[in-house]
Specification:
By secondary structure, the protein is of the alpha/beta class. It has one domain: Collagenase (Catalytic Domain). About 40% of the residues lie in helices and about 20% in strands. It is built from six helices and eight strands. The chain has helices spanning about 15-30, 40-45, 55-65, 110-130, 150-155, 160-170, and strands spanning about 5-10, 30-35, 50, 55, 75-80, 80-85, 90-95, 100. The strands form two sheets. It has a five-stranded mixed beta sheet, sandwiched between helices. It is globular and about 45 Å long. About 40% of the residues are buried. The mean pLDDT is about 95.
Length: about 170
């Protein structure tokens, strides 16, 4: 499998986090990331659910467009809290060739712990864009994080089963 192009678009204040995510996906997955800093304020604002005080992740991703012909993968990194219908919150969401990760609930006073959380969630969402599903192995980066403790427990890399699945996806 050739390395897919991945553009990580981050709010200006999240440049360091975007670079950490870039390093993590380059190490864990067959992608070649590029980090871009952009003003996402208008898109975030237009996707905000005022009653909840959160950004609707699906609406946000739809606002950037999901052209199925686009080859490049795009991950947006934002600081606002996000949710999807049926959940109180989510750390991230992949939708076709686009994904969003929110650092809102990943923050910690421990800067290294915070950056590890960002790395894991970026790799997780890019894994979904490459075709991987959630994994039952709690140490795999593709394990579903229902809480920040789940994110802290899981690793930054794919388990053997998910790595093999990714290989099969690449061949087909």
């Amino acid at each position: 499998m050739g390395r897919r192009r991945l553009r990580i678009v981050a709010e200006g204040s999240l440049r360091e986090e975007a670079l950490e995510g870039s390093d993590a996906v380059r190490e864990a997955l067959p992608v070649e990331p590029e980090v871009v800093v952009a003003d996402l304020t208008e898109r975030v604002s237009s996707s905000r659910n005022r009653m909840r005080g959160q950004v609707n992740a699906v609406r946000f991703l739809e606002s950037i467009g999901t052209d199925p012909r686009r080859e490049e993968l795009v991950l947006l990194l934002i600081s606002d809290d996000i949710y999807i219908d049926g959940f109180n919150f989510c750390f991230g969401l992949a939708y076709g060739k686009s994904a969003v990760v929110s650092v809102y609930r990943l923050r910690s006073r421990d800067r290294q712990l915070y950056l590890r959380r960002v790395r894991k969630e970026v790799v997780h969402e890019v894994g979904h864009m490459l075709g991987l599903k959630h994994c039952r192995d709690s140490s795999c980066v593709m394990f579903f994080s229902n809480s920040i403790e789940d994110t802290d427990r899981k690793g930054e890399t794919l388990c053997q089963r998910c790595a093999a699945t990714l290989q099969r996806i690449a061949v087909s």
